[in-house]
Amino acid sequence: MNAAPYCEEEYTLPSVEALLAGTLALLTGYAQSAPDCANRPLLARKLVSNLYFLAAHPLLSPPMRTMLGNLRTRWQLEQEKFEPNRSQTQSACHWHEAAQRVQ
Known about the structure:
The protein is an all-alpha fold. The protein has 4 helices and no strands.
């Protein structure tokens, strides 16, 4: 009896397609997860990251990059629902007081 050869599922994709495939998988995971799922904030954060890199990818057309940038903005709003204070603390500038005199 001949056993079926072991076949590992493997895809070889260009980097932009691999990043897009991973982003679509994350979107699917987010959509299928329960609203109280502990991983939802992490999925949203990773989606924002992936969309950032896709929006800057040189192999994509300018209209596609613009659309991905707009999607990233929408997902940032979704991410902020989980971490409302995170964006404020990251964007805040930390200034030192001006010196009273210069030596």
